[in-house]
Amino acid sequence: MLRLALLTLIAALTIAATHDVSALIWVALLGAASLAAWAGRPPILPTLGRVAEVLLTALGASSVATEPGGAASTILPYLTIPIVVPAIEGRIKESMALVALGAVALAAAGAPDGLLSDPSYLLFCAEWLAIAGLLAGFVYAVRRLLAPEAPPAGPAPYAEATRLLTQLRTVARQLPGATLDPGSISEHLLEDVRRIAPVDRAAVLSASGGGRLVVLAQLAPDRVDWETSLDADSAIADAWAAQQAQVAARSQARTASSDTPVSTLVVPLLSGVRTIGLLTLEVDRAGAYPPAVVSAVTELASAGALRLEAALLFDDVRSIATNEERQRLAREIHDGVAQELVMVGYGIDNTLATLPEDAKESAAELRALRQEVTRVITELRLSLFELRSEVDRHGGLAAAIAEYARAVGSSAGLRVHLSLDETSARLPAATEAELLRIAQEAITNARKHANASNLWVTCEVDPPYARIEVSDDGAGMSSHRSDGRYGLAIMAERAERIRGQLEITPRASGGTSVAVVLSASPRRGSL
User: Fold this and answer.
1) Starting at the edge strand that comes first in sequence, how are the strands of the sheet with 454-462 ordered?
2) Taking every annotated instance into account, which residue ranges of this chain make up the domain Histidine kinase (predicted)?
């Protein structure tokens, strides 16, 4: 449509300038050449058509310029069409080649008639060549800016991911202690810092989302209520925002006393231009962190930041893979075994409805079978709920454990007693996930094996400290079935993974108590 409109305009301008109908032959020839430019097959035909359009425009412009009253500017605007179209399609080199071809063709066509000495001819040629070239460049730049990135083709991303994960596994096995655990690396960093700087209290903090930090490790005789909000007026928030070490004369604990002199040093842990964590040191005396100490701690933090980033990335990869596998299993169970068992139950119901009245023995057996199918379906539904349960970023660990305990208690007829004490600070996401799974396994064991009537669930979270306890008034450990031992082993492995302590003890009034305790201690490995 644009070609047709421009050809019509050129025809009108040519007639108005020359008053000679024979000059329209050039418009007709351009129209014929445009048919080739529109063609799609063979692929070379549109390119040849555009070359023909440029050459015909040059010949037509020089011919019209020699007519009485004629001017090259009546036909030259058509140059924009063949030159801009390749740029629209992403071939800017072809556009520039056509600009060069147009310049040569206009010079060659105008030379025999002496037009190269005509300033108006040269001005019109230069003007429309420049307009066409600049317009092609602008169109190409806009196209590049607005075009979405093409997704990588083929299996290359998966091959690259496999290669990187294989390398990560190899490197992880070669690291000291064969670990990429953020908590362990943070504790090693605190131990190294204590050798070069005075420390009464220290912690390594990391981002958790939602404008708050989590405590990865702590060095203190007692738990410290660190200021973990990035919106607070604190040296911690200033160090995170400015990416510079901050020295302050007040404690970074929310419940600290203002009477005791305190020196605080907060050093950001940087990876390139990103802040991945903070190293916070405090000592109960003034002026404890001169520039020399700040420089030494900053240098040590720079080396530790790389190790910590690798551990955090590895932790994220492991958490994502675990969550995806849990969701996949939940989908398969729901769409497979669970649906089939429901159909089996319906079949048993139909058979019971059609049994003759004198088949009492068969009816009793079918009813017992129906009860067993109902029990298995209930177990599967609870398993699905467990697989899909996650710690919500805003709800917290205590809310997730309470929701699961209520659901299990309601389905199993247990009276659930909850004691929840959770501060606004959060544990690392991976740690919260492991604590939730331990609590779920303990609750499941009490429901399935203890024959309990009451369930007591206690959740205390005050990072880096946490204590989750599940108690029941059932038959005790001695009567638990052997398959419950596997659950205990899983709980022990999970507790060890987050450097916690699993405690399984009998209750004085009967039953069992399972507790997992997580606490940052002054020295590594004291739990």
Assistant:
1) 415-422, 454-462, 465-472, 512-518, 501-506
2) 336-522
The 3-state secondary structure of 257-324 reads CCCCCCEEEEEEEEECCEEEEEEEEEECCCCCCCHHHHHHHHHHHHHHHHHHHHHHHHHHHHHHHHHH
Residue 203 pairs with which residues in a beta bridge? Answer: 218, 280
Provide the 10 A C-beta neighbour count for residue 444. 20
Q: Tell me the pLDDT band of 291, cut-offs 50, 70 and 90.
A: very high
The predicted-structure confidence for 309-339, as pLDDT tens digits, reads as follows 888 887 777 777 777 777 787 787 777 777 8
Token output for 493: 């492995």
Q: What is the DSSP letter of 337?
A: I
Interatomic CA distance for residues 15 and 10, integer angstroms: 9
Which element (helix H / strand E) includes 497?
helix 483-497
Using CA atoms, how far residue 336 sits from 333, 341, 342, 343, 434, in Å, is 5, 9, 10, 11, 27
Burial (0-12, 13-18, 19+ Cβ within 10 Å), 40: exposed
Contact yes or no for 163/178 (Cβ under 8 A):
no
Continuous segment of H or E residues that includes residue 203: strand 201-209
Q: What would the two tokens of residue 64 be?
A: 């019209």
Greater pLDDT, 469 or 360: 469
Instruction: Tell me the average pLDDT across 452-472.
Output: 89
Tokens 């202690």 found at: 177
Convert the pLDDT of each residue in 60-70 to its tens digit: 888 877 777 66
